[in-house]
Design a protein that fits this description.
The chain is about 70% helix and about 0% strand. The chain has about 200 residues and is mainly α.
């Protein structure tokens, strides 16, 4: 019978599957960034789209299951890390969701659409990724697990990597419009982001 002890014993295997899934995805993204392949963004619903999102969802499921199985495994005092984790997870996910709504469903999943330069995208070219990075750090603190910390660290690397593949594609799709946008808005966050917030 499948139970808590079984899930705990599966944590190393789930960790390995999660790392493997994201590593395969990252290989495609690196190849795209290097100009050796066109894996991400797919632009349309073809095998690349389904491969990328299947591997991404596999990683997410593994991360959540490992977190449940290995929760607070480090055994250190959980109070401070719990508070800091919550203080990062909640706004991080809120930013990612709000920015995803601004961008639109098609564009969020890597399909060709409109170039968004308003809303959250006037502060950062990748506000969703900024939100997910913040939330990933917070989730690692919440879980208080070495397995989860490593998975979240790899996840942060994933969000930092994606724009390197996306930007050449965006330049090809939108030309001068994207070039002007990239000149005035940072890839993630910068002093310009703070100034843009302060001016509103």
């Amino acid at each position: 019978m499948f139970g808590w002890n079984t899930l705990e014993s599966l944590a190393p295997a789930l960790f390995a599957v999660g790392i493997g899934a994201l590593s395969l995805n990252a290989a495609g993204v690196v190849a795209s960034a290097a100009g050796a392949a066109h894996y991400w963004p797919p632009g349309e619903r073809d095998w690349r789209f389904y491969a990328q999102w299947s591997l991404s969802q596999t990683f997410t499921i593994c991360l959540l299951l490992v977190a449940v199985a290995d929760w607070n495994a480090l055994g250190s005092p959980h109070g401070p890390s719990l508070l800091v984790g919550l203080a990062l997870v909640v706004p991080g996910f809120a930013i990612a969701i709000a920015a995803g709504v601004d961008l639109g469903g098609e564009e969020t999943v890597g399909l060709t659409g409109k170039l968004r330069t308003d809303g959250w995208y006037r502060y950062s070219r990748n506000p969703q990724y900024v939100g997910y990075i913040i939330a990933s750090v917070g989730f690692a603190l919440l879980a208080n697990s070495a397995f989860v910390a490593v998975l979240c660290a790899v996840y942060v690397g994933w969000w930092l990597l994606l724009p390197l593949a996306e930007e050449p594609w965006l330049r090809k799709q939108y030309g001068e419009e994207y070039e002007r946008y990239a000149e005035r808005v940072p890839r993630f966050v910068s002093v310009e982001t703070v100034r843009a917030f302060a001016s509103n």
